[in-house]
Amino acid sequence: MLDAILRPAGRPYAYKKGTNEIVPIQSPKTVAEGIAVGAPPKGGLVLEALRKTKGLAETVHDDETIEWAKALAIREGLYVELSAAPSIAGAIKLIRNGTIDKGDTVVCELTGTGLKSSREYSQMVKKPLEIEPKLESLDQILRT
Q: Per CATH, which fold does 3-143 belong to?
C-alpha cells in the first residue's frame, strides 16, 4: 500500500474526494520548502498509484513537521532536511489515530540532509554552548 503525507497546502482533497482534479496553489508556504509544490507535475500519477494500491493521503502541519524533525535529532541523532520530517510526522499521526497498527512495518524515507534546512533549524533550537578547544573546557562544561 502506498501512502502520501502532504502539507495542508498539498491538499490530499483530490484523492479523498475521488477526483483527478488537482487545484493549483499559488506560492504555498511551509517550513518544508522541498515539498512546497503548488501544482505537482506528476500529481495525476500519484493519485493513480494511491488508488491502485488502496493507499491513503494525509496532511501534516508545520508544527508537526518541526516537532518530529527535532525528535529525530534528539532521539536518533538524525539531522534531516525539513522536507523529510513529514513522513515521520505522518506515520506517527496514523499510528495514533489507529490507521496504522503498532505492529505494522512502516518505511519512512528520510532523504536530504539538515544542512539544507540550517536556517530553519537555527530558529528552532537554542544556540549551542561554545567552549575553548581544550579537554579542560569540555570537562568543566560537562560537570556543570
A: Rossmann fold (3.40.50)
Report CA torsion sign: 24, 40, 89, 12.
Answer: positive
Question: For residue 49, how many other CB atoms are within 10 A of its CB?
Answer: 13
The answer for residues whose C-beta is within 8 angstroms of residue 49's C-beta and 6 or more apart is 2, 55
34 vs 39: CA distance, rounded Å: 13
What pLDDT score was predicted for residue 88? 94
pLDDT in tens, 73-96: 989 999 999 999 999 999 999 999
Q: What is the mean pLDDT of residues 8-33?
A: 75
Site of grid cell 567552549: 131
Domain boundaries, the chain: 3-143
Place of cell 506517527: 92
pTM for this prediction: 0.76
